[in-house]
Amino acid sequence: MHMTRGTSLDTNAGPSDWFTGTVYLDTIASPAPPSRLAAASVHFTPGAHTAWHTHPYGQTIYVVEGICLCQGRGGAAEAVHPGDRVYFEPGEEHWHGASPSVVTWGERVSDEEYAAAAATAD
To answer: pLDDT (tens digit, 0 to 9) for every residue of the chain, 122 residues total?
Structure first.
């Protein structure tokens, strides 16, 4: 038996030759022969996405937050929501990433507004 105690994950920036935009990678599991299983928690900032790519044994994506966009070569792009899973077949060329952010920004909250809210918050 091999146990790994819960420690903070070692977050790394996704390499620019794999991703467009800002992406953060946390390794969950690395393959230990004879297993080929690898798992990562990947956080895409709004609009960030992968390059077209394939996996020799396929890839399963499980969305835990936000809205993901996925597309297999020649197919339609799909929106994927938290709790949804996507499986790409071995050798299937595809990409995936975060949906763009839709935000309209207003003026900054003043120090006085923030202090008043903080004083009344539970």
So the answer is: 777 776 666 899 999 999 999 999 998 888 889 999 999 999 999 999 999 999 999 999 999 999 999 999 999 999 999 999 999 999 999 999 999 987 788 999 999 999 999 999 87
Q: Are 81 and 66 in contact (CB under 8 A)?
A: no
**Amino acid occupying residue 50:** T
Walk across the sheet containing 78-80 and list its strands.
19-20, 49-50, 94-98, 68-72, 78-80
Q: Which domains does the chain have, with CATH numbers?
A: 11-120 (2.60.120.10)
